[in-house]
Amino acid sequence: MRLTAGEGVEEGVYPTRKAIALADELGLDLVEIAAKANPPVCRIVDYNKFLYEQKMRQKEMKSKASKVVIKEIRFGPNTDEHDFDFKLKHAKKFLSDGAKLKAFVFFKGRSILFKDKGEILLLRFAQELEDFGKVEQLPKLEGKRMIMFISPKKK
């Protein structure tokens, strides 16, 4: 078993019994770091301290991870020009704040006949937002909704 440098221990390959004896002698624990390595890698440390440091490392990584916010914008197939501009202004704000955008056209009742109108509306919306974000998924019909995803451009 390979021991890594630690609490006053020489780095090197030791028999398992000798490694355990060294750990007992120092009043510490023998902790396996990499089990699949050949030979397995171990370190002589205080196990509670080792667990605490590992927990802190995971907590720090978790805090650095960014959370993805998805904002939704809903259209009807016959959305008027003013409503389109109003929603476009909101979409620009969302994208500049770094949120993803889920734009969808909701078809009620017989308005499903205007699938092409909905697709044209979403494509126009994507074209207007070209400077702020890029299309992640082109318009796709899922049930009564035609959905498109837009992600913000990196600054």
Summarize the structure in words.
With 155 residues, the chain is α/β, with parallel strands linked by helices. The protein has two domains: 2-63, Ubiquitin-like (UB roll) (Roll), CATH 3.10.20; 70-152, 2-Layer Sandwich (Translation Initiation Factor IF3), CATH 3.30.110. It has four helices and eight strands, in the order E-E-H-E-E-H-E-H-E-H-E-E. The chain has helices at residues 16-26, 47-64, 81-96, 115-128; strands at residues 2-3, 12-13, 29-34, 41-45, 70-75, 100-106, 133-142, 145-152. The strands form two sheets. It has a four-stranded mixed sheet. The longest helix has 18 residues, at 47-64. It starts with a strand and ends with a strand.
